[in-house]
Structure to design on (271 residues):
């Protein structure tokens, strides 16, 4: 079920959207937002600025250099994007309050055992449901949030800027390339792999991009009739998950079988 974003969230995100379209920097926020456009849903309750960053909602930080829009860098024209009204409905679905009861995002992040200085890549980040929580857990590290949908990158970029989250970078990805930088310590994927068409080839590229010792965390829905999740035909059985990932060159390093009621959480490592 979708919900209507608050008026304050609407004004803040639209302010950032106009700035991105004009190439505005942190030091030069736009004068005023447009008046009649809907925007993505407001951030999850646990999202916020990292230690040392500006206060949430403070806007652009003059102490830091200008940050260009990642879509502009990728050559994506803003007038080709889907309207905020359409995207907001999907973001509202991803961020719906009842999801936390079974997704347990804070427990998942805690289970990763992050030390706070890692580089984590959130592949298929979507609205940043996990990205911003990961950023809070990495006060001396960073999160690279990737997605193949330009509208999601627009949302991630604006939200990071308007909430003062300085250690999150939004990057437009490619369907056939994970695009994981070599310095990544951990790759995180929640409900993403079942959308990948050629999993063997895609995972082969991912394994090749990971440095030795780096980890891959996969969260995928379990089989069977569940109140949440994709159609049964889209689910990947646990045995198949392990088989396809290990065939790509990674080894199973751990599992959290009792953490999530409807999903597997598997941890793989590159030898």
């Amino acid at each position: 079920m979708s919900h209507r974003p608050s008026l304050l969230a609407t004004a803040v995100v639209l302010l950032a959207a106009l700035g991105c379209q004009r190439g505005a920097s942190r030091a030069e926020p736009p004068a005023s937002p447009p008046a009649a456009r809907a925007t993505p849903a407001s951030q999850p309750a646990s999202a916020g600025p990292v230690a040392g960053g500006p206060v949430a909602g403070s806007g652009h930080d003059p102490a830091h250099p200008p940050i260009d829009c990642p879509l502009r860098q990728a050559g994506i024209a803003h007038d080709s994007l889907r309207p905020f009204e359409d995207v907001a409905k999907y973001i509202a679905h991803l961020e719906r309050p009842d999801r936390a009861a079974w997704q347990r995002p804070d427990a998942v992040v805690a289970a990763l055992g992050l030390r706070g200085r890692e580089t984590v890549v959130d592949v298929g980040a979507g609205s940043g449901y996990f990205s911003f929580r990961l950023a809070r857990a990495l006060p001396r590290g960073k999160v690279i949030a990737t997605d193949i949908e330009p509208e999601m990158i627009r949302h991630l970029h604006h939200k990071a800027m308007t909430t003062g989250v300085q250690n999150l970078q939004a990057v437009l990805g490619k369907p056939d390339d994970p695009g994981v930088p070599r310095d990544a310590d951990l790759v995180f994927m929640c409900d993403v792999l079942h959308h990948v068409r050629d999993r063997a080839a895609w995972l082969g590229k991912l394994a090749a991009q990971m440095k030795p010792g780096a980890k891959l965390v996969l969260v995928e829905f379990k089989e069977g009739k569940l109140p949440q999740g994709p159609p049964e035909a889209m689910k990947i059985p646990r045995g198949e998950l392990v088989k396809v990932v290990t065939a790509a060159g990674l080894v199973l390093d751990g599992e959290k079988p009792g953490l999530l009621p409807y999903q597997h959480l598997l941890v793989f490592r590159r030898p």
Observations:
- Strands lie at 119-123, 142-147, 168-172, 186-190, 215-221, 251-255, 263-269.
- The radius of gyration is 18 Å.
